Amino acid sequence: MRNRFDEQLDLLNTELIEMGALCERAISTSIEALLKGDLSLAEQAVRMDDVIDQKERDIESLCLKLLLQQQPVARDLRLISAALKMITDMERIGDQAADIAEIVLLANVTADDDTLHLGDMARATIKMVTDSIDAFVGRNLALACDVIAYDDVVDDLFNQVKSELIHFIAKSPDKGEYAVDLMMIAKYFERIGDHAVNVAEWVEFAITGKHKGGNVL
Description:
This protein is mainly α. About 85% of the residues lie in helices and about 0% in strands.
């Protein structure tokens, strides 16, 4: 019975890795669409959201089977409960990557020299998402704590983007709406970072039984 349970836990890890990879691809595709002004890539990023949503449903179903059929002990129960919480944040990461792509599609915005740090924000949030999933799979508390601390890097980059956009508006006051669209994109990246922190905090809960964070809307 325990061997079967361990196999299903391994499957849960695999499914979470795949969902994390989908989120990473969605973020990287949306930022590539932004940087290149490539509308076909933006459309691709929007479509990825449906795949991420389906993966969330698959993992939720697996977690419920583990809870109902296997009667897990306390530590395993924490792992499964944490996974259920994590996939909610990961699904929202997919939503926000799609939101970025939709702005690219609807407003036809592209990042340029006035918003250099948007690309840096994207790469930083991808790192946070990747590391948070790796922390869960490896039961790595130190890595989870690193993700939580790394949110300060994303916040600093967000502040730099805001400064860049203020200068952009001062230089090109007729492009205020364009700057607002770019600010919305930066805000979505900041939220992705917050959701990665949530995932890392659920990893901490899975390992230690303690959870100090709250959910991000």
